[in-house]
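Please describe our next protein:
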Amino acid sequence: MSGMGWQATGDVTEFLAVTGDFLRAERVRNTVILSVTESVRASQARSGASSTPDDPGAPGDPGKAPLFGWWTDRTAEVRGAFMHTPPFPVMLTAVPAEAAADLAATALDGRPVAGVNSYEETASAFADVWRERTKDQVHVHRRMRLYRLAELSWPDPAPEGAPRLAGEDDVPLMAEWFSAFVREVDDMGDEDQEAAVRDRIGYGGLTVWEAGGAPVALAGVTRLVAGIVRVGPVYTPPDLRGRGYASAVTAEVSRVALAAGAGEVLLYTDLANPVSNSIYQRIGYVDVEDRVVLSFDGR
C-alpha cells in the first residue's frame, strides 16, 4: 500500500485484510460495514462464488457487484473506507470532505449509485461532486440515529406472550413482514426478502414474539462481528401495534445478544419516527451519533 488516495477492490477478503484494524478501532461507528462485509463473506462461502467481480465466476453485471475501498493519507495509513453493495447507497466512514469528493469523482465512476450514507459534512461533499458530474438531483432520504444499549430495562408492564426463535415454518410470514417493513421505511434496497429471512434463521438471528398462539412481532439481529450485534429489523403489523410487542421482542433479542457474549448491542432509528426512538430509549438504549442518507436522481 503506497501513496495517498482511494484504492478499491471487489474482494471482500482483501478489503478486510487491509482495513480490519481501522474499522475495528471504532467498531461501534463502523458497525454496518463490519456486519455487511461479514454477511458477504458468509454468502460467498456458502455459494462458492468468487469475491472478485471481474472473475468469470462472479454472476451478473460487474458494475452491480459489491465494491469496497479504503483511503490512505500521506503516511500510507488507512484513514477511511467505503462499501457499495448495489442497490443500496454508498456507505462511507468519516473522511475529510476532500476525500469524499475525490471518491465521488473517481473510484465509483460508472457504477449505479443510488445515494450515499455518511455523516452530514462527508455525505454533502460526496453529493456535491456527484451532482455536478451526473446532473442527478440530491434529496435527504433519511436522517438516522445510532443507539447503543447501556443497561437493559425490561418493559413494565410486559405484554402478553413470549419470544421464540423463528424457524423454517415461519419463512413465508417473516418474508411478508420483512417486505412490509422495507415498504414502510422506504428502504432503498430491493433484496430478496425470503433469502434475507433464511439467512437470519440460519444463524439464529430472527426472533418472533408470539401471543395468543400466533406471531405478533419480530426482531432480527446481525451476526456477532467485532464483539457487536446490531438489532434490526423490528416490525409489528399495524393492527397489532401499541401493545408493547416491539419493546418486548427488542428487549429479548438484546438480552440474548448480551448473554451470547456481545460487548455492544446497537440499533439504528429513523429520526422522523419519534415512537421507535422513545421505545428504544425506554428499554435502555442511549444515543451515539447521527448519520444522513442522501438519495440521487429523485429516489
